[in-house]
Here is the input.
Amino acid sequence: MPQFIQELLAAKELFGVPFFNFAVLAFMVLLAIYLVFSILRLILRILYASLHGHVGTVVSTADGDTFKVKVIQIFSKRGSKRGLSVRLIGLDTPESVKSPNKDIMPFGKEASDYTKKRLIGKWIILHHDVDTIDQYGRDLCYAYLFWTGEFYNATLIKKGYAWAYKYAPNVKHAEKFEALHQKAKAAKRGLWALYEARNILTAEYKKTAAYKKFQEKNPSTQKKQ
Here is the structure.
């Protein structure tokens, strides 16, 4: 062991302060500096996210690709007490809720449950592309988990919970999404065990007991399949 380390360990005082007390003091100072920088980084991150989109917590989900966010309204006045309605850009998940224009689809519940499990109560950062609002008043967004930076739009496609769906002019990440789409399809991951293309079920799946059970549970659905 180097001589200076031996002398340091043998010392009872350091700069006139008992060695143990000095070590504790040094630790507390370093901890305080770390906490100050962490808080500053958090504040700057929130400010940056607010300037370039929205930041907030997910309060509810309507579908695998649609949810509401309680926005931190620093620079943005978007949203209400019930939350900002968000529709993810560049993808489409099977429908989990029947509407006048759409029927419930196989794997819709799985996609919806996944988003609910992953996002409810989580802080996220939202960014827009060219068009920011759709015809239903929902914000069209790319979503990133606040603490990890995970690109949630990409995650849904990569794990087989959504199809890549290119819709101009919001095509900033279209090539990335299409590549993930093809990889998930090749691996028959998630919805690709049931579908051969967006909204088109495979002939094999239509012959299964699972599909028959789905039709019995949702008798008005899948007429176009």
